[in-house]
Amino acid sequence: MSRTEHIVEALGLVKRRGEFTLGPLDLRVPRGFVTGMVGANGSGKTTTLRTLLGLVRADAGSVAMPPMGAVGVAFDQPFVLPYWRVRDAAEVYAASRPGWDQDWFDRLCRRFRLRADERVKELSRGQGNKLMIALAMGNHPDLLILDEPTSGLDPAARADLVDLLREHMRREDASLLFSTHITGDLEHFADYLVFVDNGQVVYSGALDELVERFAYVKGAPEDLTAQNTPLIRGLRRGQASFDGIIRTADSAAFGPGVHLETPTVEQIVVHHERRNDEEH
Amino acid sequence: MRVIVSPTSGVPLYEQIVEQVRQQIMAGELAAGAALPSLRALAGELRVSLITTTRAYNDLAAEGLIVNVPGKGSFVAQLDPDEARRHSLERARAGLRQIVDRTRHTGLVSLAELTAMLAEEWER
Fold first, then answer.
1. Does B60 touch chain A (CB under 8 A)?
2. Which residues does chain A have within 8 Å of residue B48's beta carbon, measured at their own beta carbons?
3. Residues B17, B71: one domain?
4. Do residues B67 and B110 both lie within one domain?
């Protein structure tokens, strides 16, 4: 069997939904690594994942994916039936997923404090998410695709979930693709990042390189010139200071009084999505 | 192997791992042939990304301190004795320099006293 370095590869993907058009975009998920997907609500993260999985039909483009039995999927909205109990959902999954490990699923439920006799409709949003994740992981899939797995979880539960995902990644060749709007989930966890904005991939690559490619810039208003102002993304200009994100390559356009620092993913995302003050 | 990383120290995480493993190999605490934790196990345990541990192990391998065997894992390499001695001397000098910097300017301790102290500590 030929093994490529990408476990998922989508080329020229397009999906139209009313006014919104996703793509055309190329997307590659490196095999054996953690890939995080970030972007504002409505930027196309969920549509991208659904299109990759073939849950909605793409209008154009091609997708290469492992066989669905080797892919575990959990979306924000549970697609198990509301009147099912946890154990009913597990039975349905066990019947359809090759390599289902009931013992492992039971352990995940204990870890998540999910009782086998609880009804799906009575679960909180966070507990519902956890059920979907336990179901997705129940057959030790090679690839996990999780849509906003940490939403609805309190900080302790979020940290525990990330630990669990790290355990999943201990297996050689395990891969993970997950979307999040909590950029803190990515820190020291995600190896690669896909940044989606308005249906387009803005950045796709190693997280370290993203942080090196941009700089967080702060300075006094008089440091701004007609030349350097257009280089700033998400410019926030006050009476005493300004800040924003620039490309590291543009650093020379700013005077010595301007402070440059390594940005966090959060700063890059926030400033990218914020329209400049002037555009309001 | 002991590794403790601090995300807030300002030193890149992979460098922190490289530095600590290097010290332990140079000091002989990790013997030649000893198996290191897998990249994935170490990343999970230290709560760092896989790219971080991969980069650390690649750097250690480039320095000749460890050997990465595809499909088997990573192992402590056979150290060149001259290289180990050179490193040991460097560390000793760095430590001594620190002591001199701290004491000479006070004018309270003489070189003779310091040398006597060193001999005492050596014999302990």
1. no
2. 188
3. yes
4. no
Domain containing residue B60: 13-76
Selected residue of B14, B17, B38, B51 to mutate for chain A interface (largest A Cβ count, 10 A): B51
d(CA B24, CA B75): 13
Distance (Å) from the C-alpha of residue B2 to the closest C-alpha of chain A?
Answer: 19
Strands A200-206 and B66-69: unpaired
Q: Is residue B8 part of a domain?
A: no
Asked if residues A231 and A223 have their Cβ atoms less than 8 Å apart, the reply is no
Give the tens place of pLDDT for each residue, B22-62.
989 988 899 999 999 999 999 999 999 999 999 999 999 98
Token pair, residue B54, equals 């991969």
**Same structural domain, B68 and B98:** no
Distance CA A188, CA A58 (A): 33
Task: Check which CATH number belongs to the domain holding B56 and give it.
Answer: 1.10.10.10
How confident is the model over A101-147, as pLDDT tens digits?
999 999 999 999 999 999 998 998 889 999 999 999 999 999 999 99
ipTM: 0.73
> Positive or negative CA dihedral for A133, A267, A265, A202?
positive
The amino acid occupying position B115 is T
What burial letters (b/e) apply to A57-95, b meaning 16+ CB within 10 Å? ebeebeeebeeeebbbbbbbebebeeebbbebbbeebbe
CATH classification number, A6-209, choose in 3.40.50.2300, 3.40.47.10, 3.30.70.3300, 3.40.50.300: 3.40.50.300
Q: What is the pLDDT of residues A24-53, one digit of tens each?
A: 999 999 999 999 999 888 889 999 999 999
In the block, tokens 């039975």 appear at A91
| Confidence at residue A280, expressed as pLDDT on a 0 to 100 scale | 47
